[in-house]
Amino acid sequence: MMKKGAKARALVTLLTDFGGNDGYVGIMKGVMLGINPAIKFIDLAHEIPLHQIAAGAYILNSAYPYFPAGTIHVAVIDPGVGSDRSILLCEAKAQFFLAPDNGLLKFIFHNHRIDRVIRVTNPGYFLPAVSHTFHGRDIFAPVAAYLSIGHRIENFGEWTSDFKRGNLPVLKMTKNSITGEIVYIDRFGNLITNILPKALDIVPGGAQFWIRIGSHQIKGIASCYANGGENEPIALWGSSNSLEIALNQARADHFLNVNYGDEVCLEWFDDN
Amino acid sequence: MMKKGAKARALVTLLTDFGGNDGYVGIMKGVMLGINPAIKFIDLAHEIPLHQIAAGAYILNSAYPYFPAGTIHVAVIDPGVGSDRSILLCEAKAQFFLAPDNGLLKFIFHNHRIDRVIRVTNPGYFLPAVSHTFHGRDIFAPVAAYLSIGHRIENFGEWTSDFKRGNLPVLKMTKNSITGEIVYIDRFGNLITNILPKALDIVPGGAQFWIRIGSHQIKGIASCYANGGENEPIALWGSSNSLEIALNQARADHFLNVNYGDEVCLEWFDDN
Amino acid sequence: MMKKGAKARALVTLLTDFGGNDGYVGIMKGVMLGINPAIKFIDLAHEIPLHQIAAGAYILNSAYPYFPAGTIHVAVIDPGVGSDRSILLCEAKAQFFLAPDNGLLKFIFHNHRIDRVIRVTNPGYFLPAVSHTFHGRDIFAPVAAYLSIGHRIENFGEWTSDFKRGNLPVLKMTKNSITGEIVYIDRFGNLITNILPKALDIVPGGAQFWIRIGSHQIKGIASCYANGGENEPIALWGSSNSLEIALNQARADHFLNVNYGDEVCLEWFDDN
Fold first, then answer.
1. Domain match, B36 and B103 both
2. Predicted pLDDT at B50
3. Model pLDDT, residue C167
4. How much is the pLDDT for A197?
5. Residue C163 at interface with chain A, using a CB cutoff of 8 Å
6. What is the pLDDT of residue C198?
7. Residue segments in chain A with a per-residue pLDDT below the cut of 70
């Protein structure tokens, strides 16, 4: 039965590490369309490095603010499938989030100060036979589809405050430095950090600063990729508004030999 | 002209080896939408290893049971494009299947005991100029689109019982062993076999069994991927319900150095 | 407000070098659906080699003739993002084209003799905060979405005739040869040239010709891929109707050690 508000929920995004080879994502969509033929799907990403929950969490966080109210986000990066890990469902900013309890939703929990979520346990919403290896098809897909036709989130299980909130990387500040880290590396090899513009409020007015990453130093902040010369990494404010290190038409990660979690340090002379 | 039942057929899945680089899949969709703007597309897979018909057949078989009645499945892994190979169209389980006559539909034929199919020969349903190299665009796409608006399958050609049925791998049984083979290797390197639970009915009650693959032995059957230790392959009942060999968070195919068609042998002591 | 003709424009194609890893394409779609929930998306290609504008231009050219009137094509291969490069919008064959001013639309301009386009400058159609690095999200997506609900192209900026028309590769003819070049290499390693059938009108009737590529000679023109033997490249008329060099079930580009822009020469004996 179609419930009130169903139309507004007919948009489902999918974020997995299933790749494009095996048909797994297509199968999930088939299951959902069997329940609600009106669903429109948006693929966020399916080529996430296997089991890289942190990358998936980052992408979901960068994407959901751009989706309309009622959107249902289904994230299945789930190395614990078939174990006793829970599946979580919550609502924030009038959107819905469905994911394993493994930190994939850590930014959602943080941004919206969520302290209670639904643990999905109602088998009435699962496929009749639940496999040990493909909950994307057997649980996530039908749950998202029933949600899309207006079922209330509390129908799918029980409220819990016992779930993995995950840790967000924090900045380390001294009187002449701000140290963040690489939180995402995109397809272009651009290095996205957790340093936001407001962090620079502590830089004394007029102070020149430089950015240290690996054994490299970058002076100041550029305004676009094309500003960088060959073999000359630049720093700029990226699309998520955070400090990004890039190489014009080349991969900064390879050039600088850095990876997820590596330090990025903004420094200035402390003349006072 | 829109025929009766057209709405129920507006779902088209696509399975190809065209990849995501060249625009070929998008072009097929453009052709279809020009004929029926209401089509909804589901991409099953497009990164199938080039010309690997067996992998495509496996994926289609794992996917179609999860799609609603009226779905049209278009599979174009077609190394014989432009030769005199036929294009086949059939109906099974109230779904439609369109593919080259090269074994891609072997599971469909087997599962549903299909002994007659349509050979697609009616050029009235093709694009005006049919190329030698891209029948996906020139034949498959318009045929699927006209099918989606309710044209009957016999309009597209003539019935034939002369087509490639393909061979399904069969189990070899002895009094103390069941030997199957690897029928699919997924993105995670999981090895999917053709051994189904019911095959184990011949194992004597209470008998301990082990699984031999390559030079490796696996004891018993685990319940989820996370149960496996590092460098310790496990066996479990996979998402297609068949026996699957996996390595927790790593590739079993590389670790065991095995490939498509390699033997997987379930053995037990015959005490009787 | 929905404008007249809006329905006819609800089809949007996307062509980018964003890949499937980072969520960038999904974010663009989220932005568009927030403005026009009725948009249907077709992904042309997202795995284009980074910054390869020529490949993108080729794919767009091979695809758009197969899309219905009203389609909006959004192409974002944009190494100059954030610099002062312009964004162009034009209409041709009742379809719309939105792309950076870097040659991506060169075939459209050429095929339709376009001498005026809109330079997109009206910030009223952009997201409130325009980043330096992701105009796909901040400019292209909302512009395409407003276009899809019927806004007129001249609303988005001003007419200009000052834009990069781009150069199409031209054939060199002698009395016993036609020299073209490789303009695209597809996923299968097939080499697509700019030699069209009509170029062969200058070949004397009955003259035998051969095709020289790298250090290799190919005799005559085959009718399908399957005609080629192992390690025996063939030439055939490809799906875009141009001369194509291929290897049956293998990569011609690797076998012949050739690349974009390399010469392909059709020669014959000049007996007169």
1. yes
2. 58
3. 87
4. 92
5. no
6. 92
7. 1-8, 50-51, 271-272
Contact A62 C27 (CB under 8 A): yes
CB C87 within 8 A of CB C100: yes
CB contact under 8 A, C83 and A224: yes
Q: Are residues C18 and C112 in the same domain?
A: yes
CA distance C74 to C4: 21
Q: pLDDT tens, B87-124? A: 999 999 999 999 999 999 999 999 999 999 999 999 99
Any idea which residue has 């651009």 for tokens?
A: A190
Domain with residue C108: its CATH number is 3.40.50.10790
Which segments of B3-52 are extended strands (E)?
Answer: 11-16, 40-45
Instruction: Give SS3 for B233.
Output: coil
Query: What is the count of residue pairs from A and B with beta carbons less than 8 Å apart?
Result: 99
Domain count, chain B: 2
CB B74 within 8 A of CB B24: no
Tell me whether A67 touches chain C (CB under 8 Å).
Answer: yes
Instruction: Looking at the structure, tell me whether residues A130 and A194 fall in a common domain.
Output: no
- C-alpha span between C166 and B145 (Å, rounded): 36
Angle B118-B122-B128 (CA atoms, 0-180°, nearest 5)? 140
Q: How far is C93 from chain A (nearest CA, A)?
A: 29
Whole-number pLDDT of residue C238: 87
Question: What pLDDT does residue A272 have?
Answer: 56
Rounded Cα distance between A67 and C31, Å, is 6
Same domain, C179 and C154: no
pLDDT of residue A15: 97
Closest CA to B221 of B264, B263, B261: B264
Cα A182 to Cα A264: distance, rounded to the nearest angstrom: 7
Average pLDDT over every residue of C171-189 = 92
pLDDT digits (tens, 9 = 90+) for C107-121: 999 999 999 999 999
Q: Say if residue A93 is in the same domain as residue A141.
A: yes
Does C22 reach chain A within 8 Å, measured CB to CB? Answer: yes
| Ramachandran angles phi, psi of B195, nearest 5° | -95, 115
Which of residues C130, C159, C188 is at a domain's end? C159
Structural contact between residues B105 and B57, judged by C-beta atoms closer than 8 angstroms:
yes
Token couple for C121: 């400058």
CB contact under 8 A, C47 and B20: yes
User: What is the SS3 assignment for C5?
Assistant: coil
Q: From CA B120, how far away is CA B139, in angstroms rounded?
A: 9
Chain C residue closest in CA terms to A240 = C131
What residue numbers bound the domain in which A250 lies?
A: 172-269
Q: What share of chain B is helix, strand, coil (3-state, %, to 5)?
A: 25, 30, 45
Does residue B153 surpass a pLDDT of 70? yes
Say if CB C5 and CB C70 are below 8 A apart.
Answer: yes
End position of a domain, from candidates B107, B131, B159: B159
Q: Record the pTM.
A: 0.91
Chain A residues inside the 8 Å CB shell of C132: 223-224, 236-238
Cβ neighbours around C216 below 10 Å, total? 16
Residue pointed to by tokens 């991409």: B43
B11-29 pLDDT, tens digit each: 999 999 988 778 999 999 9
What the block records as the tokens of B45 is 């897979």
Which residue would you say has higher pLDDT here, A11 or B269? Answer: A11
Q: What is the ipTM of this complex?
A: 0.90
- Predicted local confidence at residue B51, as pLDDT: 59
Nearest to C52 by CA among C86, C88, C102: C102
Mind telling me how many Å the CA of C271 is from chain B's nearest CA?
32
The distance from CA A66 to its chain's CA centroid, rounded to whole angstroms, is 13
- Inform me whether the pLDDT recorded for C169 exceeds 90: no
Q: What is the mean pLDDT of residues B67-78?
A: 96
B and C: number of Cβ contacts within 8 A:
98
